[in-house]
Amino acid sequence: MTRLQMSLMAATLALFAGTSAAAPQVGSPAPDFSGTDTAGKTWSLSALRGKPVILEWTNHDCPYVQKHYGTGNMQALQREATGDGYLWLSVISSAPGKQGNVSPSEADALTAERNAAPTAVLLDSEGRIGRDYGARTTPHMFIIDETGTLVYMGGIDDRPSTNPDDVPGADNYVRMAIADRAAGRPVQQPQTRPYGCSVKY
Question: Tell me, what CATH number does 144's domain have?
Answer without folding.
Answer: 3.40.30.10
